[in-house]
Each structure stands twice: as C-alpha cells, then as structure tokens.
Amino acid sequence: MEDGPELQYTRTSDGVTIAYQVLGSGPALVWLPSLGNMMAQWRVPELRTAYLELARSVRLVLYDARGMGSSDRRVDLHDLGLDAHTRDLEAVVDAAGLEATSLLGYYHSSTTAMAFAAKHPHRVERLALFGAAARMRDMVAAVENQALFSLLDQDWDLFVDTAAHAWLGWTAGESGRLMAESFRTAVAPAVAKAWLEAALEIDVTALLRDVLAPTLVIHRQGERQIPVEVSRRLADALPRGQLVELDGSSPTLLLGEARTDVGLLARYVTTGKISRPAAAPSPPGERVTPRELDVLRLLAAGDSNTEIARTLGITVHTVERHTTNLYRKIGARGRADAAAYALRRGLA
After folding, report:
1. How many structural domains comprise the chain?
2. In which domain, by residue range, is 158 found?
3. Which residues are 339's β-sheet partners?
4. Are residues 241 and 299 in the same domain?
5. pTM for the full model?
6. Could you tell me if 137 and 236 lie in one domain?
7. pLDDT in tens, 126-171
8. Mind giving me the DSSP string for 3-45?
9. What is d(CA 34, CA 50) in angstroms, rounded to the nearest whole number?
C-alpha cells in the first residue's frame, strides 16, 4: 500500500473523471485537495503517517482535483474556478456514498468546502479549515507569493522547488524533496497557471452566512503567510465559526506536528469537541505580572504594539519590553504562540 488504498473513479456532472481513495471507518472526513498529487503525497512519510492515524478514527476520503494527479488531466482551462471544484467534491461525496460528512479544507480548497456547505447544509456535519480566507486574494497577498507566481512562466522546476519551501516551510531534507515532487507531478504548468489565475477570483464572502455547520478555523501560519487577523475575521463571519491558533509558525497542518494535529482533527470530527495540548507552566519566580496580562489580552485580540501602547497609556518601547518578558515567561516564540496561550487559559 505504498501509494495508499486502491484508486476509485467517479465522473462529475460535466463529465470529468475524478480519482479518489477511501480508508478507515467511523464518521466521514473528506480532505479536499489543493495543488498536489494524491499518490505522490503517500510517499511523504509525515503525510502517510497522518493519513493512517486519521483513518484509525474516521473514514478518510482523499481525491485529486480535476486536471491534477490521477484525475482527468484534459480539462477546460477556462473552467477551473469555484463551480468546477464544487462539482468535483459533489461527485466524490456521492460516489463514496456519504449522506453526511465533515470536510477538511486546506488553503485553496477551503473556499470549496465553504461553498459546498452553503449549498448542501444537510450533508455537512462539521468543517475544519486551515490556511483559509473568504477571498483567495487574501491568501496570496504576501510579496513572497506574488514573486513566486511570476516564476510560473519562467521556470517550472524552480517554481515547484520554491513553492515547496515557501508554502511548506522546508529548506531542505527528504520530505521537502518528496513534497516538491508531488507538486511537480501533480499538474502541467499550463493547468497550474490557469488554476492559480482562477483561484485569485474566488470570493465566498456572500456565502458565509449560509454555512450553518460548526466550523473550526485553524491557524498556524506566520505573519509572512496568512496573518492571524485573516483567520479571525473568517471565524467571526461564519455563523458557527471558532478560531483555534496552534503553536508554532509553520504554514502546514499534519506535517511536523502530526500527532497534535491528528488528535485535534480526530476529536473534532468524532465528538465536535476541541482538544489542545496544555502549555508548560511558568518557571518558579517568573509569574506574569498584571501589566503583562493586560498586554497579552490586547495582543491576543490582534492589536499592534502601537495600539496596545495607546490603550494602556504607555510607550511602544515599554510594550516591547513587556512583550519580551512575557514571551520568555510563557515560552512563546511569537504573537501566535502568545495568543494561543491566552485562548487556552480563557484570557482572550
């Protein structure tokens, strides 16, 4: 089972063949694809472990989007937007015989998950979204991503290798090489370009009020990827949205922190509850002061250092000093870690 379970195939309402896999038993979870190749991703040790661990608790469904991986590569380059992706998901859910399912949307595919939930509210039990935004342009606004896309027309191999580094946070190593290879074999350059151009036009803002399923918006990206404010706005806009910030700044899920991430997802899909690892207590003599707690609460609310200084009537330099001391005491590596600490303790 090097490449996972046996491939199965279904056809969309517009005649496109979609490849999918099913493994495990329990409540269903469909992991929606972004740019990738399902069979190649099975060869990435961290992903393989995550798939198998999830399948111990849920019935996991994986598939390749149209134009990618083992699905039909002959696609209309002018029809790679939200409607096309929704047709792919509808075909897979029907073929797998799922009356109702949870959905895991990852970056680009998060908008598809929300659109499907709005269109088929009775078929979606829960949503988990990672790297998500209502407008795709909010996901690619960083200068690094804009520069990355410019490589598409110049050097496909360089684009793939750079994407694996920029999007997955790996600078080297076998896992990074394997993930880059899954990108490289996923899709033809022309399809990738059309796919990304279509993605930039996707905006599901008007659909959010119709997403009635409980929705977990998961955030771990550093500020150079998707700022936490984007995830917070999305969670606030969804009728039953809830933001969870994971420790660290890696822009990935189920890679690097697989055990913690699998536990979070499995518990959420099977029970609707959320479990987070407890943070280490502060060392003796290193108690957080009342003023540092004030800074922490405002930081967790997304305020900048300047805004915190204005609210508390202190200087920005003093805010920076409090923040430095606070990070040391709670073991935080940055704002996301500190905000997660505050959320776990009911301080935010």
Report:
1. 2
2. 8-271
3. none
4. no
5. 0.75
6. yes
7. 999 998 999 988 776 554 555 666 677 777 777 777 766 666 554 4
8. T-SPPEEEE-TTS-EEEEEEE--SSEEEE---SS-HHHHTTSH
9. 17
